[in-house]
Amino acid sequence: MILTYILTLILGACVGSFLNVLIYRTPNNLSIVKPASHCPNCKTNLRWCDNIPVFSWLFLGGKCRYCKTPISPRYIMVELLNTILWLLSVLLFWKISPLVSIMFALACSVLIVITFIDFEHKWIPDRFQIALLVLGIVLTIFDPITSYLDHILGFVVGAGVLGMFYGLGWLIYKKEALGIGDIKLMAVCGLILGWKCTLVALFVGAIVGAISCLIIRAVKKEEDVEYAFAPYLALGTIFAMFFGNQIISLYFSMF
Ligand SMILES: [Zn+2]
Q1: Which of 11, 49, 234, 249 counts the most CB atoms within 10 A of its CB?
Q2: Hey, where are the domains in the chain?
Q3: How far apart are CA 196 and CA 153, in angstroms?
Q4: In angstroms, what is the span from residue 110 Cα to ligand 1's centroid?
């Protein structure tokens, strides 16, 4: 089991490093394989030793080795985040079902990419939702923990609840309160989670989202800020993946 954890650590960090490439290149329509990793400022190609996840960033003090331009802390954040979530996924689910554990780990990676792209660009490229859809379909068919009906209902609940808010936004404010991309995202997250955990995800996402909206408003003092919702939906989904079932049993044990 120790070996599984060590492998997860290494693999999680390497995949995290690749996620940075996706976050930087896909919204700008750049190829993800060419050119090789290089410094965006001085264009120097990076050597293998500049490309070791987490450690290179720390060792170089967050600066390019060649031109000393600061490298965004986003790089190490994404690598660490992905490593932690992969490890958590293996710790919590490997013994119950390695398949669920792998699917959840991959879903976390896709959600990390979506979060960072949506924060910066306020939209989500469809391919990432399609990736989540594929993971959701695999879980619907093979998940030994949650029934296939639960998964399909999760899709309906995710799309339905956000679709309802979308409709209300049109009725009350005559504008889009959230994007179609958010509805698609919550539908596929719902498929991954099953309907009960989808409710947990929406609840957590809404609370954290509302609190951060208030903070952003207080700091920026502007009325018309464009909010990104996907990061909160992603956060809620990741939370519900790992702790949703515990929260649900806790809730029902109170009656
Ligand atoms: Zn440089």
Answers
A1: 234
A2: 1-95, 122-255
A3: 9
A4: 28
